[in-house]
Amino acid sequence: MNAQKLSKRLETVAKFVPTGAVMADIGSDHAYLPCYLIHQGTASRAIAGEVVKGPYESAVGQVQKENLVEKITVRLADGLAAIEEADHVDTVTIAGMGGPLIVSILEKHPEKLQGVTRLILQPNIHAKVIREWALAHEWAILDEEILEEDDKIYEILVLQRGQMELSTAEILVGPKLSQRKSPAFIKKWQREKDNWQRVLQSIEGAEQTPEIEEKRAELMALIRLVEGVL
């Protein structure tokens, strides 16, 4: 992977960035995504934010190597603190972290999202918490994608400002994803269901304490939920 050829995962994130966007990539690592988006003529300007010094230095080096210092600003900052008002950022990408970490980044500096109209979020795990955050903060799901790469399954959520209603099942598996039922979607949730069933079997023989009963009820509810979608 490099600034000309992204991974399938990041390429999918990139396709949701609107043409002409001023984007901020939070947790940018080598800044491959912003470099790619500028090279493609998709983004007009970009901010690459990194909280760790090593990846920050890698991003600085990459932007210089690609001759994009006029178009991409690299900042060492904690999450959304990389965005300044004068940047006029309208699109934010956060990719390659767990869902809870992405939510904590969004919640830490909410004022930085004031001019932002689109969020493109790619959690490695627990996409559910992002949907819950979106519901609570008046962001609506514009689109979702699920893909498999190197035997890992990734979800991408594209949010725009607005209200939405989601069922319990849709919060868990995604409203757009559950409509399409792609092979990656079926594989992910079949795998999850199998795991829950294994845990359920393992606790069947255990002493039935209130905690065990609660866990059993929770697992059975999840299995029924997913079975209803599949």
UniProtKB/TrEMBL annotation:
Record InterPro entries: SAM-dependent_MTases_sf (IPR029063), TrmK (IPR006901)
Pfam families membership: TrmK (PF04816)
Protein name as it appears in the record: tRNA (Adenine(22)-N(1))-methyltransferase TrmK
UniProt cross-references to PANTHER family, sorted A to Z: TRNA (ADENINE(22)-N(1))-METHYLTRANSFERASE
Classification via Gene3D superfamilies: 1.10.287.1890, Vaccinia Virus protein VP39
